[in-house]
Design goal:
The structure holds 2 protein chains of 2 kinds. Chain A has 5 helices and 12 strands. Chain A is of the alpha+beta class. Chain A is globular. In chain B, helix 3 packs antiparallel against helix 4 and helix 4 runs antiparallel to helix 5. The relative contact order of chain B is 0.15. At the A-B interface, helix 1, helix 2 and strand 1 of A face helix 1, helix 3, helix 4, helix 5 and helix 6 of B.
């Protein structure tokens, strides 16, 4: 009796392990499949409701975290912290949302986004729990005109690209995800390269494969270049702000053709984003 | 664990609620720059209460649901979480839990194991970029959060699943005569 039970347990365990490997083999590199689209379609409304209900609690926890984080920063950031505190205490959630939308509008008006793109605004309703994947789910999907590979921005700059779409939601792979690669250039020196993530640190990106004969300096802005190579999966319109150079040692530039970039968008604290649909595609 | 349709419904509800809470709340809050990971803790506690099969099966389905909702390659999270749940269940079947510190400590150790497992699966599938040392900090802090979350989740789940727990039944039966005196 006991042996039978042990055998049955082992069979279930083996079945689960084999099942996992089979699923992994079948679905790896395919993007979304029917099962995922179905489950996602069922859970999207529930996630949206849960997201809305839990937002105040989330904001409260994040407020504490941001406060602790800000204490360790230098005097330049102290001023930003004061402003953030004033915002947290004095403004309601609606005002904060308004500010985000204004920033998106400013980005539109600045001419950074070329004509021909339709803008769809979405809210982040879920995000990946592990540090290995950097992606978020938003509450806008194919029903709103969102398509796979559409670029995603927020008021500060480039956020990522749409990697999967269902009727009412979409998966956005952030530029900090290990699978992300974005063609970029440093302005005004026009040094081109590829923005790649530093897995585990969403506040640090690497501008790789740059021309080592042209020197890049700390503080120079980095924007999308708008070209496409074999290794890069999606196309971004040119001149969308990505971030600014934070570390640019001449020795490192010459040795490894890399500089470090801090993204303008806070990829850990995304709320409202804009998906650029339409436009030219390769 | 004695599985009845009622208990099965409770387990399904726990898994669904856990995944939705993780994606809508825990993944979006930042404490000391790291967001807590509830799901390994949930699977570990279920393994500690129900044994290897409960741990492995719930781990598999939690992982499957997570991969579905995040549109990741199916099977990766299932593999890691089923191993985590199985190990927690194995501990329960081999050792007695005498100290209240055991569940949180085990949650901490196995969460670190699960996070390393997620990384191993990713490396297996191929990461073509550099990995920051911040990953280690992230994994360790997640382990610390698991320690803090472990005891309340373990107690809560034990309460919800009490009718199905074999040990609880034995304790109840033993306690009955002592009501009269002693």
């Amino acid at each position: 009796m006991y042996r039978k039970q042990v055998r049955r347990r082992r069979a279930v365990l083996a079945l689960l392990i084999i099942g996992s490997f089979v699923l992994l083999t079948i679905t790896y590199g395919q993007g979304s499949n029917g099962v995922q689209r179905g489950v996602s379609a069922i859970f999207s409304p529930i996630q949206a409701v849960a997201d809305g209900a839990l937002k105040p609690a989330r904001d409260l926890v994040n407020w504490f975290d941001q406060t602790f984080d800000a204490r360790g920063r230098n005097s330049r950031l102290q001023d930003e912290l004061r402003v953030a505190r004033e915002e947290a205490v004095g403004k309601s959630a609606a005002l904060a949302e308004n500010a985000q939308l204004r920033k998106l509008l400013e980005l539109d008006r600045s001419g950074a986004i070329p004509s021909g793109y339709e803008r769809v605004t979405g809210r982040v309703i879920a995000r990946s729990p592990t540090v290995w994947f950097s992606d978020v789910t938003i509450d806008a999907g194919s029903g709103d005109g969102v398509r796979v590979e559409d670029p995603v921005v927020n008021g500060d700059g480039l956020v990522g690209t749409v990697s999967a779409v269902t009727g009412g939601s979409a998966q956005v792979t952030l530029i900090a995800d290990h699978s992300s690669a974005v063609s970029a250039k440093v302005v005004p020196v026009a040094v081109q390269g590829v923005i790649r993530p530093n897995v585990g640190d969403p506040a640090d990106l690497i501008l790789d494969f740059i021309d080592s004969t042209k020197h890049v300096h700390k503080g120079q802005p980095v924007v999308t270049a708008g070209w496409r190579s074999q290794e890069i999966e999606s196309r971004f319109p040119p001149n969308i702000p990505i971030g600014e150079v934070t570390r640019a040692s001449i020795v490192v530039q010459e040795a490894s053709q890399q500089v470090h970039v801090r993204p303008y968008a806070d990829l850990r604290d995304l709320d409202l984003v804009q998906i650029l649909t339409g436009g030219s595609r390769g | 664990m004695i599985l009845t349709s009622k208990i099965l419904a409770r387990l399904v509800a726990i898994v669904l609620l856990g995944v939705i809470l993780q994606l809508s709340f825990f993944s979006q809050v930042w404490v000391f720059g790291v967001s807590p990971d509830l799901l390994p803790v949930l699977v570990i506690c279920l393994g500690l209460l129900g044994g290897t099969m409960t741990g492995a099966v719930t781990g598999f389905w939690v992982g499957f649901l997570l991969d579905c909702l995040l549109v990741e390659p199916l099977g990766g999270a299932s593999l890691v979480l089923l191993a985590t749940g199985y190990l927690a269940g194995l501990f329960r079947e081999r050792f007695e839990i005498h100290s209240p510190l055991v569940p949180p400590l085990l949650c901490m150790a196995l969460t670190v194991f699960a996070e390393l497992g997620f990384g191993a699966v990713e490396l297996m599938l191929g990461i073509d970029t550099s990995i920051s040392a911040m990953v280690i900090r992230d994994i360790l802090v997640k382990g610390l959060f698991a320690f803090l979350l472990g005891w309340p989740i373990y107690l809560g789940l034990r309460r919800i699943l009490r009718p199905a727990l074999v040990e609880e039944q034995v304790v109840r039966r033993r306690r009955r005569p002592t009501v009269l005196g002693a």
